[in-house]
Amino acid sequence: MRLRDERGMMAISVALMLIVVLALFGGALWQYTMVSYRNADRLERETQALFLARAGVEAVMAAWLEEPLANKPSGAIDRIYCSSDGSFHIEEPDDYVGYVDVLVTQIEDPGG
User: Fold this and answer.
1) Strand partners, 34
2) Sheet holding 75-83: strands in order across?
3) Hey, how many other C-beta atoms are within 10 angstroms of the C-beta on 18?
4) 100, 80 contact by CB (below 8 A)
5) Cβ(3)–Cβ(9) under 8 Å?
6) Three-state SS for 81?
7) What is the structure's pLDDT at 2?
8) Alpha carbon of 67 to those of 28, 64, 74, 88: distances in Å?
9) Which class for 3: exposed (0-12), middle (13-18), buried (19 or more C-beta within 10 A)?
10) What are the residues whose beta carbons fall under 8 Å from the beta carbon of 100, sequence distance 6 or more?
11) Residue 31: burial class (beta carbons within 10 Å; 0-12, 13-18, 19+)
């Protein structure tokens, strides 16, 4: 038995190929979006860590510069905890979000 109209079969073939191509394109787009999202999230966490480290260094430098010359701390300093409200504590609070370990060494600046 012969089909009367082969154009219908051609249309179904084209429609199926189009569905497969669109599904592959959608999957690739979704994958690209997820990779971009993960990269942006990682970059944000790295940037936050960098700024927190820089702020910690500047806070330790400011505290060190405020001390009199004879009483400058050096060596390992006790662990400093940061609570969820942004304040720093020597003892571990219940709501701490992180901590900082500090090692202070004094070096001679060769540039003067």
Assistant:
1) none
2) 88-89, 75-83, 96-104
3) 10
4) yes
5) yes
6) strand
7) 55
8) 59, 6, 12, 19
9) exposed
10) 56, 79, 80, 82
11) exposed
Gap between the Cα atoms of 105 and 76, Å rounded: 9
Are the C-beta atoms of 77 and 67 separated by less than 8 Å?
no
Residue 5, CA atoms < 13 Å, CB-side half-sphere:
4
Q: Which tokens hold the place of 89?
A: 């504590």
Which pairs from 12-17 meet CB under 8 Å and 24+ separation? none
Whats the size of the chain, residue-wise? 112
Mean pLDDT by groups of 10 residues along the chain of 112 residues: 66 92 96 96 90 78 68 69 76 81 75 64
First to last CA, the chain: 99
pTM for this one? Answer: 0.49
Task: Kindly state the tokens that stand for 112.
Answer: 């003067």
- Residue 45 tokens, joined: 């966490």
Residue ranges of alpha helices (H) inside the chain are: 7-66
- Measured CA to CA, the distance from residue 101 to residue 106 in angstroms comes to 17
